[in-house]
């Protein structure tokens, strides 16, 4: 189970690192990328296979004061520091000062140094040797872990609070909510672990159920955090696919109307998010052209056969769209409700409405026995 | 009008798309619209930058003609934007933002003598000098139109994003971090 969580976390970390590479100037992106990478490293060091490798391998570090365990703690401190930096940039934005960054770095450094020194005391003082019967709750290691847990748990509590008080809509809102829930679970994990270590060490009794509950909370919390950071990106990718499909579906309508009103085409390269830009442009150009053509839709087809056929197909396609019943080609409009023939009904997404009109074009061409081609 | 705007207007125009984007981005930043959450924010910024009132009205039916989707009338004491109705609220917003772009860039009409300006037939009752200054959103044959159109595209995207985030600055930063 831990391996699965580690894989999901590495995926989230790599996605963030890739985004950070694309936008190196974003401090909040940098902070979250470092946080995810640090926790991914901590999870990897916690894997039994990695612990075994480091224990039995060339480092010969021994258990429990081994390199993997200590490395995991330092990775957690690094992740917590990055979360502090994330909190700072999310709440203050451009108002973040170098001093406020430094003060948080100093706190993280102090936690890292003190927890490491405490962890390594038994190596230099034989009188504090490990108690093989104490299991995970070893002298000094317990204190070291408690210090890291308090620091990381406090930071996660503030991240959770921020996530829960700033929920938006769409995939971003969902991602922030899931991430906040994950942080909340991790705070619960930190509390159960602190309780376990305190009771096991100072109360001289083991609480294996509490320890296992902590394991489950860790898996759940970290999974939620990783998924929460991925949701907005996945949402954007899906939105981009939908935009691309809508763009393609609008092609018949766009080609038909811009052939008649070519001056509405705005040929300028986008500077970002090409798909969204292209769709937006296509919609505006269609709407512009429809405004120009609207006046001729109620008139009898022009003498020009090609123009007349195109107008008839356009009018029929608009009439096929929901509530666009005012359009009558070659006759009088029968619906006087004031509904614009070239606008979507109130509350309807203009893109999906125009897609419906565009998809109706081939149908009306077939029905009328007019040319089958829509371009 | 700010120093930046004056500088932009006097610099030679680069017709490349990259330079066009840069000019529009710089204008949006200079007038504080990078976080615009609604058309009201934009209208307020235009009014503030130009130091005069700004009125927004639907284009009267008798003035609707051909491929003119919006008009910008810079009177002595106020600016008036007329937008074409019919294609839905998104299209009206776009046309209005396009005219706002003209006003913020300080564009002037390039159509020459008022007598030959095709807009004079749309605005027969207006003063000839004013007609010479009227800018209409239609085709994109010149740099001014391209700047105004790109301004409308970008600001509309800013407003749409702000509405998704409900105007929450922290959520905008979350979007930067997680998007």
Automatic annotation (TrEMBL), chain A:
Keyword entries, A-Z: Membrane, Transmembrane, Transmembrane helix
DUF6545 domain residues: 242-361
Ranges annotated as spanning the membrane: 107-124, 144-164, 176-196, 216-235
Top-level taxonomic group: Bacteria
Name of the protein described by the UniProt record: DUF6545 domain-containing protein
Origin species: Modestobacter muralis
